[in-house]
Amino acid sequence: MVESELPDFFDPAKGYSGMKAVLLNEHGPVENLHFVTDHPIPTPGPGQVRVRVHAAALNYLDIWVRNGWPGIKLSYPHIPGADAAGVIDALGQGVEGWEIGSRVAIDPTESCGECAYCRSGRENMCVNFRLRGEHIGGTYAEYIVVSARNLVALPDHVSYAEAAAASLVFVTAWHSLITRGNLRPAESVLIVGAGGGVNTACIQIAKLMNCTVYVIGSTDDKLAQARALGADVVIQRDIEGGWSRAVYQFTAKRGVDVVVDNVGAATLNDSLRAATRGGRILTVGNTSGPKVEIDNRLIFGKHLSIIGSTMGPHQDYVTVMNLLFKGKLKAVIGATYPLDQAQEAQRTLERGEVFGKIVLEI
Predict the structure, then answer these.
(1) pTM: predicted TM-score of the whole model, two decimal places
(2) Which of 9, 341, 48 is nearest to 142 (CA)?
(3) Residue 3 has what pLDDT?
(4) Are the CB atoms for 273 and 286 separated by under 8 Å?
(5) Closest alpha carbon to 352 in 288, 289, 291
(6) Which of 308, 323, 345 is the last residue of a domain?
(7) From start to end of 195-248, where are the E strands?
(8) CA-based angle 52:56:16, to the nearest 5?
(9) Does 134 fall in a domain?
(10) How many folded domains does the chain comprise?
C-alpha cells in the first residue's frame, strides 16, 4: 500500500490512531458535547460494513437524547446522530454485494432481521428495534459500522449532505403519509409546522400525490419557503381566531382529509378540529410535549382516526430515497457546520432558526 492509499486514521510516524468524533458523557446542556480526535475506530463484525462518514445530519432527537428522559439508557461515551452518508471503508465477514469505495446512504433503523416483524418487512416494528444515535452509537463521527442490509447505493450526482439530510425525515414522512396514512391523490393535507425536516418532506410527498397542502408556520420567512416547496395555502400560527378556524374557513367549513401533527400537546386538539369527518391525524413526534388532554367527542363525533408510527421499514427507505435520487423529491438543507462545531449546530437547531436540515460535514 502506497502512502497516498493509506486510510485517514493512519499516521506513518505513530501507526493507526483514533478518529474524530463528538462524544456525550452525561445528559445535560449542549456544552456536554465534546469533540475529540482520538476515539477508537470501530471494526465491522459479521454482516456489517464500516463507513467513512462524509456528512451527518441533525434531528431534534439529538437534543432529546442529549437532555435525556426517564428510562433512557445510553452506553457512555455516546455518539449522537441518526443520519449519515459516506463511503464503505471495510467489509465484515460474510458481506456480499458491496465493495470498498462504494458511496452509500444509510437507513438509520437497525433491526434483528429475524423476528416475525422483520421477516414480514416491518423492520421498524422489530422486537429489538434500535435507532442509531438513540439506542446505539450514532453518526457524529468519521467512521461508523452498520449492517450491510441498511445500505442503499448513492448515485454520484447526489451529494453526501443531501443523502444524510434526507434519510430519517423522508422515510419517516413516507411511512406516515403513504404506508400508514394511506394518502390518496387529490386529498387535502394540513401540515402543522413549516420548517422541520419531516414537515418539509411531507409537503413534497403530498404534492407528489397531487394533494392540496395547507401549512401552519411561525414566521413569514418559513411560510414563504413552505410555499416555494409547493404548499398551496400558508397560515400564520398566531392568526386571529386561531389556525384551526382559519383552515375550516379555507376549506368551506369542510376541514382537511389528513393532518400531520408532530407538535403534540400544544396543537393536537386544534388538529382534531381542523380535520374533516372521517379524517386522519398522523403523528410521529411531540416536540411540545407527549401528554395531551383530548376532547374525545371530536374523535367519535367526527369519526376521526389517530395514526402513529416511528421511522419506516427498509423498503419504504429504498422507495423514498430512489425518488430523491430521481429528482422527484429534494433534501432541504438550511445550514452546514464542520464536525468540531457540533455544539453550535445543536444550538442553532434548538433556537429554531433554520428552515430544513442542519448538516455536519466530516
Answers:
(1) 0.93
(2) 9
(3) 42
(4) no
(5) 288
(6) 308
(7) 212-217, 233-236
(8) 30
(9) yes
(10) 2
- Tell me, rounded to whole angstroms, the distance of Cα 25 from its chain centroid: 24
Verify that 212 and 282 share a domain, yes or no: yes
Contact between 103 and 293 (Cβ < 8 Å): no
User: How many residues are listed for the chain in this entry?
Assistant: 362
The per-residue pLDDT for 11 is 55
DSSP 136: B
Q: Are residues 299 and 266 in the same domain?
A: yes
317 within a domain of the structure (yes/no):
no
| All residues at 6 or more sequence positions from 121 whose CB lies less than 8 Å from its CB, including other chains | 313, 314, 315
Contact 168, 59 (CB under 8 A): yes
Q: Which residue from 317, 262, 323 is spatially nearest to 111, judged by alpha carbons?
A: 317
Q: What is the pLDDT of residue 4?
A: 41
Does 155 sit behind a cis peptide bond, omega within 30 degrees of 0 on the bond before it? no
Whole-number pLDDT of residue 290: 85
What is residue 195's predicted lDDT score, i.e. its pLDDT? 86
Q: Where are the beta strands (DSSP E) in the chain?
A: 10-11, 15-16, 19-24, 33-39, 48-57, 83-91, 103-106, 109-110, 130-131, 143-147, 151-153, 188-192, 212-217, 233-236, 256-261, 275-283, 305-308, 333-338, 357-361
pLDDT tens column, 173-208: 999 999 999 999 999 999 999 988 999 999 999 999
Residue 228 neighbours by CB under 8 Å, 6+ apart: none
| Dihedral angle over CA of 128, 130, 135, 139, nearest 10 | 150
Amino acid (one-letter) located at 97: G
Q: List the domain range (segments joined by +) for residue 233.
A: 171-308
The answer as to whether 324 is a domain residue is no
Count CB atoms within 10 A of the CB of residue 65.
23
Question: What is the β-pairing status of strands 275-283 and 305-308?
Answer: parallel
Residue 62 lies in a domain: yes
How many whole angstroms separate alpha carbon 309 and alpha carbon 59? 17
Residues β-bridged to residue 106: 151
Q: Across 178-298, where does the E strand assignment appear?
A: 188-192, 212-217, 233-236, 256-261, 275-283
Measuring CA to CA, which residue among 188, 160, 36, 44 is closest to residue 102? Answer: 160
Residue 314: which residues within 8 A CB-CB, separation 6 or more? 107, 109, 121, 123, 149, 150
Cell numbers for 328, please give them: 422527484
Q: Which CATH number goes with the domain that contains 85?
A: 3.90.180.10
The low-confidence residues of the chain, meaning pLDDT below 50, are 1-6, 13-15
